[in-house]
Design brief:
The chain has 117 residues and is an alpha+beta fold. It has helices spanning 6-25, 30-43, 83-99, 103-115, and strands spanning 48-54, 57-63, 70-75. It has a three-stranded antiparallel sheet, covered by helices on one side.
Length: 117
């Protein structure tokens, strides 16, 4: 998607961070979280994505043609291994990258996933 606007970048980065945080809380490895966030952002047209994750924090900067950069940070304060949730989040991440779901579709899928628990 050429010409990703700053607002679109902020929106899709928000959802990528939501997924990344949920993955980290569910027991995902740091590298898996970083890779998933990066892939989601790149799927929507980011020119570059820098992700830094440790077990208590995620920081991501997205760069685009229409704007210089946007950055979001998440503090992760709890951990609970839930491999079933992690599997579902991995599948959602792959679907987002393959089908370029709208932000509303992503929000609905995340809501269903979170309320199913």
């Amino acid at each position: 998607m050429p010409g990703l606007t700053r607002q679109e970048a902020e929106t899709y980065l928000y959802y990528a961070m939501e997924i990344g945080e949920a993955m980290l809380v569910s027991g995902a490895e740091v590298g898996r979280v970083e890779d998933s966030i990066r892939r989601i952002c790149m799927a929507y047209g980011a020119k570059r994505v820098d992700v830094f994750t440790i077990t208590s924090s995620i920081v991501t900067t997205v760069y685009g043609e229409e704007f210089l950069s946007c950055t979001q940070t998440r503090r992760v304060s709890s951990m609970k291994n839930d491999l079933s949730m992690l599997d579902g989040l991995n599948r959602l991440s792959r679907e987002i990258c393959e089908r370029k779901l709208t932000s509303d579709e992503i929000a609905a899928r995340l809501e269903r996933r979170c309320t199913a628990r």
